[in-house]
Amino acid sequence: MPKHARGRRPRIVLIEPAETQVRTLTTAQTARVDAALNAIAAAPDEVKPHATASALRDYQDDGVRLIFYATALGSILIVTYVEAD
Questions:
Q1: N or C: which end of the chain has fewer CB within 10 A?
Q2: DSSP structure string for the chain
């Protein structure tokens, strides 16, 4: 992460279709997704790269999967995919 971005949590933006996916979740699933979003915001560089696209990150934990990428300065995380079982 760039030196000037350290200490600040990045802003998280969900794009379509991630927003649509979130709207279909139950309350319990939404709570787990919120926790996952907090986890990626706290340490986005620690999330493993996506298997087929190195610019993407693929977070998976507690039945939640988020695929996202960071902007050039790391100040915004763009969530492209949300899944919760």
A1: C
A2: --GGGTTSPPEEEEPTTHHHHHHT--HHHHHHHHHHHHHHHH-GGGSPBPSS-TTSEEEEETTEEEEEEE-TTSSEEEEEEEEE-
